[in-house]
Write a structure and sequence with these properties.
Blueprint lengths: L11 E5 L16 E2 L2 E2 L1 H8 L6 E4 L4 H4 L5 E3 L9 H11 L4 E6 L7 H10 L6 E6 L2 E10 L3 H9 L5 H6 L3 E6 L12 H6 L2
Parallel strand pairs: 1-4, 1-6, 4-5, 7-9
Antiparallel strand pairs: 2-3, 6-8, 7-8
């Protein structure tokens, strides 16, 4: 972290790019071109100054993701088991006590929102998550590394939903409006083209 980030507690950051991209016809979402660059690139630009421990969860195209991360993690299962699996891998890899989790298809995030999440977790820290118009958004969350064991246990018991797993641990909300453009996730090619 740079000197300008002294007011923020250190955190690891995980970018989730390990999905099968079903709504994009099987394309790797983080590498889909948006404004002349892969979707992962503008997210990287925003998060890079906030951490010295940037992790990407990706199940393919590791060579292409490598320049954007300090570490890559791959799900142990080969069938794209979902974001909870990626978060477990990120928590196991993280060097800091808190892990900021973001999706690879939300390139309009800004630093102010990420700072809100980091600070909302408090000193303990707790789980912080964006709540948009009353709906929790687990792809914008801050998770304490101390929860790794509990989340692994939930996984072993069959839980596959990241949101349901985190709800068991209490959530500190970061409230956002329904039309907050920073939360746009481009999970179809049509949405990518609309915002180009």
């Amino acid at each position: 972290m740079s000197l300008s980030d002294d007011h923020l507690p250190p955190c690891s950051i995980l970018l989730l790019a390990g999905g099968r991209g079903q709504r994009m016809g099987g394309l790797d979402k983080g590498l889909v071109q948006w404004r002349g660059r892969p979707l992962i690139a503008p997210i990287h630009d925003v998060v890079r100054p906030l951490t010295d421990d940037l992790i990407i969860s990706c199940n393919r195209n590791q060579t292409l993701y490598r320049p954007y991360a300090d570490h890559l993690v791959v799900d142990p299962q080969a069938d794209f088991p979902g974001p909870l699996a990626g978060v477990l891998g990120g928590l196991a890899q993280a060097r800091h006590d808190r892990l900021l989790v973001l999706a690879c298809d939300a390139p309009m995030i800004d630093r102010a929102l990420l700072e809100q999440l980091i600070l909302a977790a408090g000193p303990q820290p707790a789980v912080a998550m964006v709540r948009q118009d009353g709906q929790w958004q687990p792809m914008f969350s801050l998770i304490p590394r101390v929860l790794l064991g509990a989340l692994q246990a939930q996984w072993q018991q069959g839980e596959r939903s990241l949101l349901r797993a985190l709800l068991d641990h209490g959530l500190c909300p970061v409230e956002c409006a329904a039309d907050d453009p920073r939360l746009c996730n481009f999970n179809t090619l049509e949405l990518v083209q609309q915002h180009s």
